[in-house]
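thought: fold this chain, then report.
action: predict
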Amino acid sequence: MTFRRWAHPRVTAGSRAFCPGLGYLNIESVEPVTLSELNEDDAKTDGFDSLTEMKKTLLSIYPDPTDGKSWWRVRFNWETQKVENGETLFPDG
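observation:
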């Protein structure tokens, strides 16, 4: 899961998106949220140690609250990628 600030969703549930360095992501859901709705579980799922750390990072990436954009929660899973020797590069999960 991740959070983005967009004028409109750039991905849709059921689609695939390529992420450099990660591979293909299967988009499970895209839903509008507000920063005040986010909680510690959201932060941990997005890879942060705390909600405070996540909000600080999001606000440094998207510093203009008057930009007319909305916050979006994007849930996804990675497709398993195989390298030449057959090992899994990114496990499902």
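thought: worth noting. DSSP finds two helices and four strands in the chain.
final: tokens above.
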